[in-house]
Every structure is written in structure tokens, then in C-alpha cells.
Amino acid sequence: MTVQTERAPSGPAEASEPPVKGKGRPSAPRKAGDFVPYLLLLPAVAATLVFLGWPLVNNAILSFQNLNMRQLIQRLTEWNGIDNYRDILTGPDFWRVTGRSIVFAGVNVLLIMVLGTLVGLLLARIGKKMRVTLMVALVLAWAMPVVASSTVYQWLFAQRFGVINWVLVQLGFEGMASHNWFGTQFSTFFVVTLLIVWQSIPFVALSLYAATTTIPKELYEAAALDGANAWRSFTSVTMPFLRPFLYATTFLEIIWVFKAFVQVYTINAGGPDRLTEILPVYAYIEGIGNQHYGMGSAIAMLTIVIMLLLTAYYLRIVLKQEEDQR
Amino acid sequence: MKRSLFGRFWPNATAVFLVLVFIFPVYWMFSTAFKKTTDIVTDTPVWFPTNPTTQHFKTAINADNFWSFVGNSLTVTLLAVIFSLMIALAASFALARMRFKGRRGFIIGFMVAQMAPWEVMVIAIYFIVRDADMLNSLVPLTLFYMVMILPFTLLTLRGFVAAVPKELEEAAMVDGCTRRQAFIKVILPLLAPGLMSTSMFGFITAWNEFPMVLVLNKQVEYQTLPVWLAGFQSVFGNDWGATMAASTLFAIPVLLLFLYLQRRAVGGLSDGAVKG
């Protein structure tokens, strides 16, 4: 939490802001020192415009071109208007992949949020020693580099000598001996989902636990005085307090899972038979793998539009939270 | 009695189970890396490397170009983090401490940039870098990574800068420091923990980045560790010992950083969140 300190009677370039509702605009620059903030921001803004803005613009430009291996080698620019978009939007593949991506993100985010919240609440309930142990475990899972954890999951689920198949056989599922986890769409998605959920729960759980520690004890005492049982005090004290946090985190997770390129690509490269490609992987394999660069750019463009909508929604939630805090 | 049993036993039992669930894959990576191959390819898993070997680490380190991958990864990651810290520090100071037109717009802009789907932009980036004749080089990677981690770095640092009491700075200036001296002598030392945890997240992002290297640097001597690790299996087939040793080598720097800074990291995340 940042605390706005009081204004100094005679400070240099002013810092702290009086709480302004809505569109309070500071007055226009008056003195020479007023361009200082812009000067300080210049490198960051310039770098972002060049290295993020230009690829975005270039992506849009490429998406209106017929650009394949031949054009790439001969360095030709062949405009084909909205052909790429028309082909994509009228063909079945894109919609299939989009639907798949939405279901995939939905399932993952639901699991992450529900389980993450439960683990976070559990952290608040257990003793200190146990809590620290569990936190360390969570941090370890969280910190694993994604490529490394993908590799480890491949080993856990390996057809031969994989520990998961062995455990399942011990539990009486004889048919799971030498089971190939990456043979079908559903089963591959199952492993990818497990990997993503396993790595994402820690962030939600730890942040949520941190948030619960800020709930004033008085609220619970008051609820207890009013004769609320544990469940009642949870629904009327804990949940309202955490709701804004949960909204924002949910959207953050949706955006992250939607972009889960590395996990899907390293676990099974979108296979078997391209059945586990989600949008970013689809754009990559069409564009780079199959060398239809124009098409790939158009798919990327559509993906970016979807992501922007999600991001806008997330920002709305976050900014509304900020307004409420003032 | 019943109440205390419920109140004590189940939460702890669940917690123990969760510790196992979250630790096990990490443990399995480590233990496999140290097991003899005969203990890896068994019908019944060997749970603990009773006679450990460093053979698999030797295999991984002796793999072609290993040290060049390490060098590239370190160079690109560290430079990207340092550059983005420098740029972000200046910007976060403006956003946390000054009032000016469009301040909120800048903040929202960086929040949008933080969500940028880099994974989807590799095609466009490929053509930009090709036209600049910079394929197979570490320079574009460094610059793109710098911008990739910049929004997060900037927004997080802004929270830390805002948390430093202004009075300290003013007191230093009353004592005759210039604004810059006050910044260097008073604020920067207080920001050190914030700088550390912020740069850690930047480090991890850049350390892990993988699609861009794959597309921009086809030549092996310009590739980084994630690409090496992802391609490791195709080279070593089912040599799980070597693959796990390679994963361990790749994960160790990050795991150590994370454990060392974990308390601060979690706090820092919430501190640097959205504050106007």
C-alpha cells in the first residue's frame, strides 16, 4: 500500500497527488521544470514504442500480404487485401482452434482459481511451521522455469518407467502399464492442464493468503458477536474483502493461460495431429512451421484482438478497484 | 473433541498432501539427475538415489556447445535486466513522485504493454530483425527482452519508489544535496530490496524466453539454454538422467534466487500492484 505523504510547503517539482475524483487534470505546464517527468519517461516510452509498437504494426502489415516461402526468399511484397482474413474466418480450422482455446483457458482458469483460493485459505488456517513448509513448496513449484517443468512432466508421464503409470498400476488400474499419455488430444491436454494448474496455483494461493492477512480482526469479532457461524463469517466478511482481488486475478490468469505457448509447444508441439494447438501455437505452426507467414500473421492479429479485449476488461476491473480505494 | 479434531487434523493433513504434490516433481527432477541409469530404468521406481552419480551432469555439460548456451543466456538475460532497470527507474520516479499531464495515461499504457502477447508476434519480429540484417545475433534478443520485462519492472518499481517517504529526500536537500545527490544517497539505498525482487522477475522471464530465440537464431552458437533444453530430448532420446540433469542445471539459478528472495517477492508483488 502506498501512503500519500503530505505536501511539503515548498517542494521542488511536485510529487504527491491530492486525491482527485474522476478526471482531475493537473494544470498545464508553467515552469521550465515541468518537462522533467516527460524526460524521465522518454527512454521507457521510446523503447516500448520501437520494440513493441513496431512489431504490432508490422504484424498488421504482413497480415494483408501473400507471404510464403517463395516471397520470403525472393523478398517480394505481394498484397492480397483481406484474403488471409477471409480464408481464415470462413475456414473451419480457426474456429475449431478458437473454441478449443476458450474451453482450454476456461477449464484451466476455473481449476486455478478454485484450487488456488482453497490453498490460500488453508494457508491462513494452519500453524506457522506447517505454513512455512507449504509456502516453500509452493514457491519451488512456482519458480520452476517453464521449459524445465515441461520436461519434468514429460518424464513423470513417460510411457516406460514413468512414475505416474507405475502409481496408477499400483492403485489397480492395470491397463495403465505403458500407457501413452501423449497419444490422444484429451490425454495430452490433461497433462498440459495439470502442468499449468500446478505452476499457477502458487501465485493465486500466496497472493490470496497475503490479502487475507490484511483483513481487520475486528470485522470477525463483530461478526462473531452478531452470532455468525464460521461459514457465515466467511461469506459476509472474507469473501467481500477478497472479491476485487479475485476478479482481477481471474482475468490475469485468463490472459496468461491464453498465452501458454511454451507449455503446449514443449509438451507435445500441439500434437497429436495438431489437435492440441491453441491460438498462439496455431499461429506459430501455420506461420513459421508451415511457412505461410501472411496467414500466420493474420491469425496472430486475430489472437491479439482477442487478447486486447481480455486485457481491456482486466484493466477496467483494476482501474475501478483503484477508484474505489480512493 | 469433534470440533478440535476437525479444526486441527484435516487442515494439516491436507497441507502435508499439498506439500508432497508441489514438491514431488521438483524432487523427481533432482533425484533422477543423480541416479545411476540402472536405477532410472526400473519397473519399480527407485525413490531415492542411494548410490548417487554425477555422470548425467557430465553428459549434459559435455553436450555440444553447452557453455556457449550458458554464456548467451547469461549475457542476454543480465543485460536485458540491467537496461530495463535503468530505464524503468527513471520512469517510475516520474510516475510515483511527480504530477503532470497524462500521468494516468502512461500508467495505463504500461499496464497494457505488460499483457503484450509476445508469443504471437514472433513472425513480425522475425521480418523486422531480418530486414535489419540482425538474425543470429544476441543484440535483438537483448533489446526485445528488455522491453518485454520493462512494463512489469516499471510498475513494480513505482510502488517501491512511492513507499519511500518524501521527507527523507527533502531533509537531504535541506542539508544541501542536489536532487540528484539526494536520489543517489538517500533513495537508492532504500530501494535496493525493491530493485532486487523486481529484477528477479525480469530475470526469470528473460531466462525462460524461448519462441523468439527459436525463430531469430537458427545458428546454434547464438541460441540460449531454453532452446537447448527443449531440443535436448531429440538429441538424447530417452536418456532421462541426462535430461533431468540438464533441467536441473537450467532451473538451479532461478530456484536459488527465488528461495532467497521469496518473502520479499510475494510482498513486492502486492506492493507494486496498481496504486494511483
Helix-strand blueprint:
The complex is a heterodimer of chains A (326) and B (276).
Chain A: H1 36-62, H2 69-74, H3 83-90, H4 92-125, H5 128-143, H6 146-156, H7 163-170, H8 185-212, H9 217-225, H10 230-258, H11 261-268, H12 279-289, H13 293-325
Helix pairs in contact in A: 1-13, 4-8, 4-10, 5-8, 6-11, 8-10, 8-11, 9-10, 10-13, 12-13
Chain B: H1 2-34, H2 37-40, H3 55-61, H4 66-97, H5 103-114, H6 122-131, H7 139-163, H8 166-174, H9 179-208, H10 211-216, H11 225-236, H12 240-271
Family (chain B): Belongs to the binding-protein-dependent transport system permease family.
Subcellular location (chain B): Cell membrane
Protein name (chain B): Carbohydrate ABC transporter permease
Protein described:
The complex is a heterodimer of chains A (326) and B (276). Chain A is an all-alpha fold and 326 residues long. Chain A has one domain: MetI-like (MetI-like fold). Chain A is built from 13 helices and no strands. In chain A, helix 8 crosses helix 10. The radius of gyration of chain A is 25 Å and the shape is globular. Chain B is an all-alpha fold and 276 residues long. Helices cover 77% and strands 0% of the residues of chain B. Chain B is built from 12 helices and no strands. Chain B has helices spanning 2-34, 37-40, 55-61, 66-97, 103-114, 122-131, 139-163, 166-174, 179-208, 211-216, 225-236, 240-271. In chain B, helix 4 (66-97) packs parallel to helix 7, helix 4 (66-97) crosses helix 9 (179-208) and helix 9 (179-208) runs antiparallel to helix 12. The N and C termini of chain B lie far apart (50 Å). Classes of the chains: A mainly alpha (326), B mainly alpha (276). At the A-B interface, helix 1, helix 4, helix 5, helix 6 and helix 8 of A face helix 1, helix 4, helix 5, helix 6 and helix 7 of B.
